[in-house]
């Protein structure tokens, strides 16, 4: 009798597991772990064989990709439809400055020579925003072609494609990284394989995530050794009310708050599972970095001046779009959002990014104003600058950015999105930097182009960037605007505090406050809840009063 009961229970369990799962029961957030904790921290090895023959290997605990190629000082190795390794070997043949290009994302990957091989790392786990070795998966209604559902893996950046469900099987692709997810919906878990093309990386088992799970704030102790050039101040800023309001969700979505004063970090705290090592999606705050790259190119005399005309270096196949007004567009017009292109209708980000050819869509957009006379905020302007600069360089743009800005600042843990061609970094808002590195970038500008005693950008460019060149006409406050830097004023107890800011959707801010010798960084995940301005409120209501005490 007991054996029969066991058999019945086993059969019942089998039929329950085989029953088709309703996707609506799986909506919400899920937390998972890889089979092995380092499965997404991949090893890159380039081994030199005889002559110019070499072999590229990508692996974790197992070999993922292996490919032979001809070794040269410039490497451009296509590994799969969505995966490329590119690298430049230094003169001493001791290291390779490289990038893994996966989908639409560029990951820096520096390789160092050890014997007959070059070794490096590609850390796909840099995007995790829960605790270490933990992944997040979000399933929600809308946007899917099957059952009108969609799945968003890892960072939850809401960039997912090809969602499919058949019986209990689901599959989808992370649009930016190109990572592919395929697996099963089980009664109490989701089991997914993660692959790059046809190359299996790891398996993840996801369990339902409790939204009210409390995270211990990941503050950085002033004595901790993070070797990135920052020092901690002994005079720490205390913000208990802000921290309580973040933990109680009064300040929903806040993920990091950092303050530097007189060149030292005086406050640093991370929330919602973030920590100091996780690059954050800067969105349009990246535009200020794009401005810096243009300034460096002018310092290097690659670009003559901000008065040079856009169409001087637009590819020949698009010169047909040039007319009497467009021919007047200068680099300065693009830097100040005053190109005159119809960025609010025909060439706004949603429009051109849904086209088959971004550059064609933007350049064919009508002119609605004389260049330099009217400023409307739009990502088409920095996008054009990225194309323009790329046409002037004899190395890929990502290598120039790394050599001239990121490497001198000691920034190695970052990601750069590319444009529709997957060929160049997208200047309209495509960077992930850690909050400490965002703070470092703000400090570079506060220091008038210097970092740790080394000049990276000319003082003249910093001054020109911070000038009030235009006034944005299509934003509520009609802010004065520099070279992709916003101007604002905050009134605190009757005192006016002026700031220059890098701003990004969802609450990504770098505040430069010259009169307080301070830089503030706040990051948040408020992309779709209409709380993107909350970071400014935190700065105004919590930080500035404490900084003025």
The helicity comes to 10-25%
Largest sheet: 11 strands, antiparallel
CATH architecture of the largest domain: 3-Layer(aba) Sandwich
Span of the ends, CA to CA: 78 Å
The gyration radius over C-alpha positions equals: 25 Å
Poorly predicted segments: 1-17, 128-132, 143-147
What would CATH call the class of the largest domain? Alpha Beta
Mean pLDDT: 89
Structural class: alpha+beta
Number of helical elements: 11
Strand content: 25-35%
Features of this protein?
549 residues, alpha+beta, Beta-lactamase, eleven-stranded antiparallel β-sheet, eight-stranded antiparallel β-sheet, 11 helices, 29 strands, disordered N terminus
Describe what you observe in this structure:
It is a single chain. By secondary structure, the protein is of the alpha+beta class. It folds into four domains: 24-37 and 127-208, Lipocalin, CATH 2.40.128; 41-125, no CATH class; 218-301 and 393-549, DD-peptidase/beta-lactamase superfamily (Beta-lactamase); 303-385, no CATH class. It is 21% helix and 33% strand. The chain is built from eleven helices and 29 strands. The strands form five sheets. Strands 2, 3, 4, 5, 6, 7, 8, 9, 19, 20 and 21 form an eleven-stranded antiparallel beta sheet that branches. Helix 3 (286-299) packs parallel to helix 7. It is globular, with a radius of gyration of 25 Å. It starts with a helix and ends with a helix. Mean pLDDT is 89; it is low at 1-17, 128-132 and 143-147.
């Amino acid at each position: 009798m007991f054996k029969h009961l066991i058999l019945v229970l086993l059969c019942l369990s089998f039929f329950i597991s085989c029953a088709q799962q309703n996707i609506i029961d799986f909506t919400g957030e899920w937390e998972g772990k890889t089979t092995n904790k380092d499965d997404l921290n991949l090893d890159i090895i380039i081994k030199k064989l005889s002559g110019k023959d070499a072999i590229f290997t990508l692996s974790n605990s197992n070999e993922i990709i292996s490919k032979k190629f001809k070794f040269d000082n410039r490497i451009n190795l296509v590994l799969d439809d969505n995966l490329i390794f590119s690298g430049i070997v230094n003169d001493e043949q001791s290291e390779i400055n490289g990038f893994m290009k996966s989908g639409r994302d560029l990951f820096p990957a520096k390789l160092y020579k050890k014997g007959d091989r070059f070794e490096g790392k590609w850390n796909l786990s840099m995007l995790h925003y829960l605790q270490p070795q933990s992944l997040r998966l979000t399933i929600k209604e809308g946007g899917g072609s099957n059952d009108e559902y969609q799945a968003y893996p890892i960072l939850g950046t809401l960039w997912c494609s090809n969602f499919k469900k058949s019986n209990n099987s689901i599959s989808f692709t992370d649009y930016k990284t190109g990572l592919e997810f395929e697996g099963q919906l089980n009664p109490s878990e989701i089991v997914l394989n993660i692959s790059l093309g046809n190359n299996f990386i790891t398996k993840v088992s996801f369990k339902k995530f409790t939204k009210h799970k409390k995270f211990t704030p990941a503050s950085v102790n002033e004595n901790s050794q993070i070797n990135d050039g920052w020092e901690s101040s002994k005079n720490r800023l205390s913000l208990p009310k802000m921290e309580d309001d973040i933990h109680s969700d009064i300040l929903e979505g806040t993920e990091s708050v950092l303050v530097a004063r007189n060149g030292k970090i005086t406050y640093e705290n991370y929330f919602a599972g973030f920590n100091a090592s996780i690059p954050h999606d800067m969105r349009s705050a990246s535009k200020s970095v794009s401005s810096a790259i243009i300034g460096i190119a002018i310092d290097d005399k690659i670009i003559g001046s901000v008065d040079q005309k856009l169409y001087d270096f637009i590819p020949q196949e698009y010169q047909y779009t040039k007319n009497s007004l467009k021919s007047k567009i200068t680099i300065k017009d693009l830097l100040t959002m005053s190109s005159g292109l119809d960025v609010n209708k025909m060439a706004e980000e949603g429009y051109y990014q849904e086209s088959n050819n971004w550059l064609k869509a933007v350049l064919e957009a009508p002119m609605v104003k004389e260049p330099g006379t009217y400023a409307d905020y739009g990502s088409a302007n920095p996008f054009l600058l990225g194309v323009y600069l790329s046409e002037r360089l004899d190395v890929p743009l990502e290598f120039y950015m790394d050599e001239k800005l990121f490497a001198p600042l000691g920034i190695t843990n970052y990601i750069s999105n590319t444009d529709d061609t997957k060929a160049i970094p997208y200047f309209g808002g495509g960077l992930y930097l850690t909050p400490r590195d965002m703070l470092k970038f703000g400090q570079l500008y506060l220091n008038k182009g210097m970092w740790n005693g080394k000049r990276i950008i000319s003082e003249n460019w910093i001054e020109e960037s911070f000038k009030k060149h235009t006034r944005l006409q299509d934003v509520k406050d009609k802010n004065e605007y520099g070279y992709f830097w916003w101007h604002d004023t905050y009134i605190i107890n009757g005192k006016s505090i002026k700031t220059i800011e890098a701003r990004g959707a969802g609450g990504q801010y770098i505040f430069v406050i010259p009169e307080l010798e301070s830089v503030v960084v706040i990051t948040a995940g408020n992309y779709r809840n209409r709380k993107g301005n909350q970071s400014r409120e935190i700065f105004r209501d919590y930080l500035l009063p404490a900084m003025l005490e």
